Amino acid sequence: MRSFGLLFAGLLVSSAGALSFAAVHRGSSAVTDPKTSFTLPFDLVDSRVFVAARLNGRGPFHLLLDTGAGGVTISTDAAQQLGLHVGEAGDGQGVGEKTVHAGEARIAQLQMGDLTLADVETNVMDLSDAPQVFGSKPFDGIIGLPAFERMVVKHDYVNRVLTFTAPDKFDYAGVIVHFERPRQIPVVAGVLDGVAGNFGVDTGARSSLLLYGLFCAQNNLQQKYGAKLEGVTGWGIGGPVRSLLARAKELQVGDVVVRDLVIRLSAQKTGLTTSSAIAGLIGPDALSQFDVTFDYARTRIIFEKNKNYGRRDSYDRAGIWMGQDKDGKHFTVVDVIAGGPGAAAGVKPGDQILAINGESTGNLVLPDVRETIRREAVGDKLTLLLESDGKQRAALVTLKDLV
């Protein structure tokens, strides 16, 4: 069975990477008209970097730029729009527990800013459950290794700008962490509160740190952190991702130190997070405290502190995982963490959320709501208008830190 990578680990880690669904890198694609350097704005959606791209001259299509992705993946809808011939690629495994099916096709030309790739092999997958993560935000596919192998890519999370530079024109002397790449994802040696491990650096794996089940068991991390709160903490290829929540004191990678992180201890029974290959995934909530530059040509990552450095990490303060109906009119409660504020307010899985603080959810953007809930002050209140079994009711949720 093939592994389609990491996306939606939170995502399809996922942002690996959630999220997360990354494509398998099956072959090289030609580069035409290479540029020495250019910048490209990005949209930060549920902590993941989305860029506009043109495929076969059409678009824009919205692609997740993911270090956890081995190649290119596009949605079945995008493939249909492009009129691509889709062959069979087989079944595979993502971060969720369900087996997923993929096709394969070729894109004659992929343009992302001033980077143009020709004759691109791509996986084709059903991404129709993406609203469980991204709501009404468009998600047409993923691009990983083909971009990072060809250009040095700097992520400016504060200004939401990417800078692409040709490797032979790039130089830097500063805080550098070298990585290995046994597969598609950069892997760095790190220490989490005194416990050493090798961690994938995955821009597609939402939140700060997702720890794999075997690493947690071998190091008794559930007991170490007293982790008791469990729930759906993300969505990826293969479905929901369940984790235990905890808070760590310090993660050190080379000379880079990030403190006071919310960590997720995978509770998955199957899927990529049961692998022994790495300890876990460092995701964008930790990475976004820096301007982060991926220099694959020299197997190094450059970290430059930005104004987010030292900001206390937070997690959803309602304890509710919400998805969005395909029609975009309502949010749906997928999971409620036992002992959390949502459970205390009587919110239940399957409830439809019609309005939040008087605003119809049909007018709201799910990732923005999720970000607001985790950033609102402890003690703030949310009034949810819920519907189940044809009956409406209100629930008053008082926000608090879960960990």
Tally the beta strands. 29
What's the CATH topology name of the largest domain? Cathepsin D, subunit A, domain 1
What is the gyration radius calculated from CA atoms? Answer: 20 Å
Q: Determine the N-to-C terminus distance.
A: 37 Å
> In CATH's first tier, which class of the largest domain applies?
Mainly Beta
Instruction: Give the CA-based shape.
Output: globular
At the fourth CATH level, what is the homologous superfamily of the largest domain? Answer: Acid Proteases
- The number of helical segments is 8
Q: What integer is the average pLDDT?
A: 89
Sheet of most strands = 6 strands, mixed, barrel
Low-confidence parts, pLDDT < 50 over ≥5 residues? 1-28
For the largest sheet, list the strands in their spatial order.
5-6-11-7-10-9
Provide the CATH architecture of the largest domain. Beta Barrel
Q: In percent, how much strand structure appears in the residues?
A: 35-45%
Structural class: mainly beta
